[in-house]
């Protein structure tokens, strides 16, 4: 009997009516395999080394004979899924990665199969209207009564577009006309972006991409927790203007990457209004507070910003990618518009083009219908349901902070408003230099084992370990287990150092046996 799914028939490759049965069978097989992996995963990473993974990747002959859809996907699962990092596991506490909402995963399969591009209305129809409805919903949550926005690939793109809009606003002549030629170039060299050292690195990179001077990003002073100080902002604005430069934008952060702190948005907005400065709030991390039943007040004043970044693939628990840029004044987005006759002509038959083409307000052309994921999640669990998950991870971080407040070995370094924990292994007797050196080594030991993934960073000049808690299912006991692994790794590494401090007892018997490099003893901690 002939096979229902010919292995090498190129005519059966594309998803269409004639291959609908193969499509269903294919997805069922993939989903069943992944469901089994989710149910049986015992640690966040398998622990395979880079050389081993590189060898597995190199062993695949991409120019070889085709193996058919089923075998190709099984091979891909054994290569990719088997060695992936699993963000749903409670011992994954490293970066701003979250477990994802089930309705969003279902929507992801839907939008991938239909393959809508929301750049023009004639490619997307109702998808354009659904995205715009979600933009309006998010803008209303921010407090932008007549705002607008667009979905983006992530916070980096959202911040870039926000600063692009601010740059174009700053390059207007007093009569509102766009500066051109030498006048534009002269003004461009004087534009300055004010941000703190705790702000996201995309701010500085955006300034570079936007053609600003190398020193265009000016650091604003902070309080002891890394939050932008309103009075320091006022002084910095005065200093910039006295130097003959122009404040293009002030970037406040609602959820700093390391500390998870929220800048005081209300007083910062007052200073920006007084100076006539564009205020952008990067709420990529803290955007979930918009739906938090108990912590929404942390964003008070965000409605006074000119633009806001929100990453739904962080604290809204959406699959990557899903972000949005919101603006308080809809007309600001027009500064992004670029017309092409084949795509989004400005006029049709001598009249303004009546179509709602979202490419008019996006830096991207082809763009996925990522809004469907958030739409489905909101309909499935509601805004309050998402907000409860946000509060859960923040509550967990607060519990961990309380747990470590008097810990004799793990020292807290900074408070948080959201869900991060910054700490070092530094019991009495371990000086700063040794504690500094332990940070990357502990992280590496845990990563190589695959048993727990933590992050590292630098705060106030000192290296530290970082937990980013974005799993609402994780418990305090789960985090305690990770912290115990940190302790075990650190004690093992210290024990290795102590062994190196003593001459090997066999030195006299084997005079050629020298002391090993400390790295050879890191296995003690595994």
Q: How many beta-strand elements? A: 13
Category from helices, strands and their pairing: alpha/beta
Strand order of the largest sheet: 1-7-6-5-4-2-3
Q: How large is the radius of gyration?
A: 26 Å
N-to-C order of helices and strands: HHHHHHEHHEHEHEHEEHEEEHEEHEEH
Uncertain regions: pLDDT < 50 for 5+ in a row?
A: 1-6, 506-526
Distance between the termini: 54 Å
So what's the oligomer here? Answer: single chain
Strand content: 5-15%
- Biggest beta sheet attributes: 7 strands, mixed
Helix content: 40-55%
H/I helix tally: 15
Characterise this structure.
This protein has 526 residues and is α/β, with parallel strands linked by helices. Helices cover 40% and strands 12% of the residues. It contains 15 helices and 13 strands. The protein has helices spanning 20-40, 50-58, 69-79, 102-114, 121-124, 126-142, 155-170, 181-188, 202-209, 230-242, 265-275, 312-315, 371-404, 432-449, 476-501; strands at residues 148-152, 191-195, 217-219, 246-253, 279-283, 307-311, 323-327, 347-348, 351-352, 410-414, 420-425, 455-459, 462-468. The strands form 3 sheets. It has a 7-stranded mixed β-sheet with strand order 1-7-6-5-4-2-3, sandwiched between helices. Strands 10-11-13-12 form a 4-stranded antiparallel β-sheet. It has a two-stranded antiparallel sheet with strand order 8-9. Strand 4, helix 11 and strand 5 (279-283) form a beta-alpha-beta unit. Helix 1 (20-40) runs parallel beside helix 3 and helix 10 packs parallel to helix 11 (265-275). It is globular. The model is unreliable at 1-6 and 506-526 (pLDDT under 50). It comes from Isoptericola cucumis. This is Pyridoxal-dependent decarboxylase. Belongs to the group II decarboxylase family. Keywords: Decarboxylase, Lyase, Pyridoxal phosphate.
